Each structure stands twice: as structure tokens, then as C-alpha cells.
Hints:
mainly alpha
Amino acid sequence: xxxxxxxxxxxKGCTAHAKPNQLMCWPHWRRVPxxxxxxxxxxxxxxxxxxxxxxxxxxxxxxxxxxxDSAIAAVEAKxxxxxx
Length: 84
């Protein structure tokens, strides 16, 4: 059985790991606002799509990266607000 490796959660200070093909650990993922949650899922599917090629694929990857970065920033902002 080949074990897929988990990834460290990208939220600053978090020591948990995300399951393979997940952006962040479950407790942090639950804190992502719903519109950003949907954007991450939709753009991830587009970025992974094999039918896209060339510039369309590059655009899809950029959209996913923007959604991913926004989701991470939103969770980190919530946590920073709670600490202050």
C-alpha cells in the first residue's frame, strides 16, 4: 500500500498536517469563509483539469493560487484578530 504524504498546514504557527489533496488541516479549513471555500474547490478542479492546455491552464492555476492565498489570509486574519 503506498501512503500518500500529508502536507503541513500553511497557517502560521499550525503544527498540524493536511490530508493529501487538502489545502489545510480540518480545524483551519472550517474557518475559511464559504465563498472562499467554494472558490478554492472550483479553481482547484480547473487547475487540475487535463483538458486545459497552454495559456488556459496557466490562467486556471493562477486563479487557484489566488483563491488559495485568499483562503489562507482570511484564516490568518481571523486568528490575528482573536489574539488582539
